[in-house]
Amino acid sequence: MKIIAITLFALLNFILVSSAEADESVQNEQYEASVFFEVDAYIAREMKRQRLPGLALGIVKDDRILYLKGYGHADSSGRPVTPETPFGIGSIGKSITAMAILQLVERGEIELDAPIQRYILNKFNGAESITVRQLLNQTSGFSQISTFSNTLSSINDPYSDALEKNALSYAEKFLKITNKTEHPYRYSNANYVLLGYIVQQVSGQSYGEYVKEHIFNPLSMHNSFVTLDEATVNGLATPYRRIFGYNLAYDGPYAYIPGDAPAGYLYSSAKDMSHYLIAHLNGGQYKDNSVLSSESTRLMQTEPVPGTYGMGWSTDYINDLQVFGSPGGSLGFQAQTFIVPEQQLGIIVFANVLDAIDAAWPNKTHVITTTHIASGVINILNKQPIGGSGPSISQKYWLVNGLIFILSAWLLYTTARTAKQCLGLWGSGKPGYAEISIKVISRIFLHFAGLFIILLLSLTPLVPIWHIAAIFQPDVILWLKTAAVFLALKGSMEIIRLVWSIRQRHSMKS
């Protein structure tokens, strides 16, 4: 009887414990379900507010994926976005390039504090005073604006030699003169293009082959690609631009710039980037594969000076919670990664639309729509207020389009008024101007100044940022060009009035 009683007691205790564990598991599942229901509702609201065609989300914690989901459409056919849908990752790819460099450092093939001249084929005086570490931390002194002309000129280069050609063109631009002074942090794609070239030189593989073999494959990133063609064949989401507030698909030449691949032209999915974030949360380890040591992983996440740049990552704060990560943007694609080290939490958000108006102008151009959404998701997971995500795209375009409408109405009115005055000369016989003066000549000259400036900017590489603006915000640039033509037309009519005045005065004196 004693044995039976003990057995029954043990069995009852096992049932109670199992039931408690099951209840706890159900409670956890219910809690997670409620949180992710709130995340879904939040993303649905933001997609509507910001007119996002498609979005993909990945949330990881510790060494596992908590949540993966696709929202909206990948293209105009209505194909749904899934966690496996590839997107452009933009500057998030810089961290992949940094990882490749640090892998070669760990193998003893690169020294972080060695001058980059050691790893560059051609001889450049300035390459003796800049180290690999400075390229990684973006303290080489290179500037971003001066890289735009190289970016635009490299779009037609074949993939096989585009990176080398682009890297050497940056070397020609930035490394001709030795400059041993210390440089502050200054963001520039040139740093990471040169690092990608160094990966090629040291490894003996193309940059793309190296990344596939040593990063994508070990991390089971099967929907990640190094060229646009590969990504397109495997279901790449269609990139969109906004034209006066409406999303239009883009398939032009600037969708992919092979020479800038290490700095911002790689492609991945939310699922694959979740694997990548897990590796960063776990000292370079994903399942049974290690792509980097914990020391090197920590180095990537460490800024030499707070508020600058680590190696592919930079730090920020969300409701006093320290995070590190990176935004990413290329034509028609935007993304944001955040890692919360205190909570072993990682977030990736992709969207397939981007133009200049998505950025938070003028002081935080690195903050884009996906940045706000990723921040909101972190706040929801931490039961914090989501916070403001800024004006919606509709509100921004109401402002932009409203201003364009007012200026266009004024321009049409003044042009029509000048045309009426000009046409009325022949009937009235009155001179067009009371007197000919420097003021009159100056006003006529100013009417042509806008057209002259725009022609100069459009037909020359004098100001590369103009061409970048024409690519990322074509609607506003188109309006500026149209306005310049109308002003020149108005100036032409003013010249007719001036000539008529001169002739009338001459005939009166005769």
Structure description:
This protein has 510 residues and is of the alpha+beta class. It contains 17 helices and 12 strands. The protein has helices at residues 2-50, 93-106, 132-137, 148-153, 159-174, 189-203, 207-216, 228-233, 261-264, 270-281, 294-300, 369-381, 393-423, 425-428, 438-459, 464-472, 474-509, and strands at 54-61, 64-72, 87-88, 240-243, 246-249, 267-268, 285-286, 289-290, 314-318, 321-330, 333-340, 345-351. A 6-stranded antiparallel sheet has the order 2-1-12-11-10-9, with helices on both faces. Strands 3-6 form a two-stranded antiparallel ribbon. A hairpin with a 2-residue loop joins strand 4 (240-243) and strand 5. Helix 2 packs parallel to helix 6. The chain is globular. Mean pLDDT is 86; it is low at 1-31.
Output the structural class.
alpha+beta
Give the DSSP E fraction (strand runs of 2 or more residues). 5-15%
Shape: globular
Multimeric state:
single chain
Q: Helical residue percent? A: 40-55%
Summed over residues and divided by their number, the pLDDT gives a mean of 86
Low-confidence stretches: 1-31
The tally of beta strands, per DSSP, is 12
The largest sheet, given as strand count, sense and whether it forms a barrel, is: 6 strands, antiparallel
Radius of gyration: 29 Å
Question: How are the strands ordered across the major sheet?
Answer: 2-1-12-11-10-9
Number of helices: 17
Q: What gap, in angstroms, lies between the N and C termini?
A: 141 Å
